[in-house]
Design brief:
Blueprint lengths: L2 H8 L12 E2 L8 H5 L16 H4 L1 H13 L5 H9 L4 E4 L8 H13 L4 E6 L2 H9 L8 E6 L14 E5 L9 E3 L5 E3 L2 E3 L26 E5 L2
Parallel strand pairs: 1-2, 2-3, 3-4, 4-5, 5-9, 6-9
Antiparallel strand pairs: 7-8
Helix pairs in contact: 1-5, 5-6
Length: 226
């Protein structure tokens, strides 16, 4: 399948500046669990970044997200998404938005299985969908890390969820096995390197060479609240 055709089928990919390569997003207002958590004080969704800033500022972003949501029903979606991501070393699902259904999770797994050389990271708050998939004996390929996100700030989920993530406030102490995201700095060869923009300001929110979120051996990632 040609790249041009694949983009038309899935509605295109997103280009989050933090990510090492392209990603995929939907409108956060279409989240299932997130739509409930956004109304809960102290939840990680209460101040959702995807409901403000550039996600809401530019009409083109919303149009693209609506197009992607509409294209999910295309029977060639899996093939097209595999075509678009097969040459990427790392791919993130949902820099905004979340899984829409069990069917979508099955399709995401199928994409990963078609591209074993690509590492896929799937952060999600759709616990019920993931739980249902696992109870039904769903396959989880080694190159797909489903990282279930804790719903409340400073909450760590039970290990029963597998690989997980949490959001922490400043000065919160975490267990030694937790990888704390340091995306405020670019990491090069294990060292923090301040990245400066042309406006002479620090560039915040970039993965650099850190790939902890894609690493299945990293059981918990903690993201400082922002």
């Amino acid at each position: 399948m040609l790249i041009k055709e694949a983009k038309e089928i899935v509605g295109g990919l997103s280009d989050a500046s933090k990510m090492p390569e392209s990603s995929y997003n939907l409108d956060a207002r279409n989240c299932i669990t997130g739509a409930k958590l956004v109304k809960v004080k102290g939840s990680v969704c209460a101040g959702c970044y995807a409901l403000k800033g550039n996600y809401m500022r530019y009409a083109a972003v919303g149009i693209a997200q609506a197009r992607r949501l509409d294209r999910l029903a295309n029977p060639q979606w899996v093939e097209a998404m595999a075509t678009l991501t097969e040459k990427q070393k790392y791919f993130r699902w949902f820099d905004s938005g979340d899984i829409q259904s069990l069917s979508m999770l099955i399709k995401i797994v199928a994409v990963a299985m078609l591209n074993p050389a690509t590492s896929y990271w799937l952060p999600t708050k759709e616990y019920k969908i993931v739980s249902t998939y696992r109870k039904q004996g769903g396959i989880e390929p080694k190159n797909l890390v489903i990282r279930v996100s804790a719903p409340m700030i400073n909450q760590r989920l039970s290990d029963v969820y597998g690989t997980t993530s949490m959001v922490i406030t400043k000065y919160t102490r975490v267990d030694n096995d937790v990888a704390v995201c340091d995306a405020a700095h670019t990491m090069k060869n294990g060292q923090k390197v301040e990245t400066i923009t042309k406006e002479n300001k620090p560039l915040l929110g970039h993965c650099g060479d850190c790939r902890a979120c894609w690493n299945p051996n990293n059981k918990v990632t903690a993201y400082p609240i922002h």
